[in-house]
Amino acid sequence: MNIQPNTAYRDKYAIVGVGNSPLGKVPNMSALGLVEQACVNALDDAGLKAKDIDGLLVRGPDDIYTFHQVIGERLGINANFSTTTTNGGASQILSVIMAVMAIEAGLCTTVLCGYGRDSWSRTHRTEEARMRSATRSEEMDSSEFGPEYGLFGAPAMHGFGARRHMHLYGTTRDQFGAIAVAFREHALHNPEAMMKKPLTVDDYRAARMIVEPFGLLDCSLRSDGAGAMIVTTRERAKDLRRKPVLVKGFGTHNNLKGWFADDNMVNTAAGPSSARAYAMAGIGPGDIDCAQIYDCFTYMVLTQLEDYGFCKKGEGGPFVASGALKLGGGLPTNTSGGQLSEAHCEGVLQIVEGVRQLQGIYGADRQVKDAETCIVSGHGGNTVCHSTLILGTAT
Amino acid sequence: MSEYLKPLPRPSAESKPYWDAAREHRLVVQKCNTCGEFWFPPSQRCAHCLSDDHAWTAVKGTGKVFSFVTYQRLYHKGWDGEVPYVVAVIELDEGPRMLSAVVGIPPEKVACDMAVKVVFDDVTPDATLPKFTPV
Q1: Mutate to test the interface with A, among B15, B67, B122, B133 (most CBs of A within 10 A)
Q2: What is the pLDDT along chain A (395 residues), one digit of tens a residue?
Q3: Domain architecture of chain A: domains with CATH
Q4: What own/partner pairs with CB < 8 Å and gap ≥ 24 does B70-73 have?
Q5: Does B112 reach chain A within 8 Å, measured CB to CB?
């Protein structure tokens, strides 16, 4: 069904503050505490108080029931509009989208969005947790058509896509490695990043294999951490302390027929999702100054860049190997180090980084020069769900 | 016989005929009597037209490797000593794709689009896993 994104939303809403918690190994904080801290930091960034917030869209580990209620209680917020978003790594951009739609509908005015997890602590806090993580997590197992064949963990599902892409287009592991290397370079300019050491393609090749075609350095980090954003109207943003970052466009798509259906593992939901976002924003890939792409695995960056139109389908390998993703390249991507080298918080930190790049707060080593637009992706819901956000500076 | 340490399938009401047939070394898939399409995984209605008129139908058991991964790290004690092993998405000639294993070939020889046929692995007296091997 042909749909027409509503261009009246373009540049009408803004992200007026962002924040993050400590990232990486934070054993003294729970997932709730991490989100609480990120939310408080976002409020400070915006110059707002908790009483100014009347919408709350947050998410945490899936085993904490009605996460938004617990966060609202901690922050002392009664919200006109609130829920826990649950669409995997596509949830965090979806929260921003839902915030815009709720404000447009007149249900609320100022929405706090956030996500956090304590994944490093959960897997390292005790000897038992370390053992469990060294083998597998049972709660994610399906009951059939998977575990009985030895299918465990996210690397395999994404690895199927990577392998198929390699088969169809001749994409190589070294090209995946170029992504890991570029993001590591960026992480070295980010004092909060978990990964502190330079990385070469030789290091990438030498890392132990996990689930081929993925080795250790194709996989994102296990992290504690949280991020948060505050969404309101551009009009209201005028009175606030930060230069507002405008929501230019957004889109979503969900290939709910599954990762194995059609050619979804190489032509992902990122394609239609981004097409809608571009249509709403009235711009195309050539107008994008930097990108923050959901990097659960290296391959997912490559295929999303194709799906987002930065190169043709099948040409992602040469594109990422060209150096385009590095600061100073044609499309600086994951300028914080991303989930591969900064910390993995299911995409929320990619929104935070996109906003900060457009706030222009960084020094020359990390700032994308003259950045006016940034595209952010969220991928997840176990591989088939996607959200896209296009941000821009106010002109 | 040594203890079987790998997870066993836990069939649902909808998938039980699939696993029952596998125990008899038959590969069956739901086929819609209304639109004629096959679908997998099992569900109550045709995934193409939502008709509830279907029959569990024997398929040829041949297809190709749509994609695959090779486990180089032990995720579960049941595979201790069996790493590396291959998990694959198999596309049956009749159309449906299913998760399975590729066996009878060194992992490094497996390739996308390789032709395969089903083999039945009686892993316990009560459970048989359809797996695939090169034609």
Answers
A1: B67
A2: 678 999 999 999 999 999 999 999 999 999 999 999 999 999 999 999 999 999 999 999 988 999 999 999 999 999 999 999 999 999 999 999 999 999 999 999 999 999 999 999 998 877 777 766 655 455 556 799 999 999 998 999 999 999 999 999 999 999 999 999 999 999 999 999 999 999 999 999 999 999 999 999 999 999 999 999 999 999 999 999 999 999 999 999 999 999 999 999 999 999 999 999 999 999 999 999 999 999 999 999 999 999 999 999 999 999 999 999 999 999 999 999 999 999 999 999 999 999 999 999 999 999 999 999 999 999 998 899 999 999 999 97
A3: 7-121+222-393 (3.40.47.10)
A4: B70/A209, B70/A211, B70/A212, B70/B107, B70/B108, B70/B110, B71/A150, B71/A156, B71/A211, B71/A212, B72/A208, B72/A209, B72/A210, B72/A211, B72/A212, B73/A208, B73/A209, B73/A210, B73/A211
A5: yes
Q: Is residue A354 within 8 Å of residue A292, measured between CB atoms? A: yes
If you measure CA to CA, which chain A residue comes closest to B113?
A167
Out of A155, A160, A261, the one facing B67 most closely (by C-beta) is A160
- Chain A nearest-CA distance from B41, in A, is 8
Shortest CA distance from B130: residue in chain A: A149
Query: A26 phi and psi, to 5 degrees?
Result: -125, 65
ipTM: 0.97
Cβ(A388)–Cβ(A375) below 8 Å:
yes
Taking an 8 Å cut-off on Cβ atoms, the answer to whether B75 and A150 are in contact is: yes
Contact assignment for B75 to A136 by CB distance below 8 Å:
yes
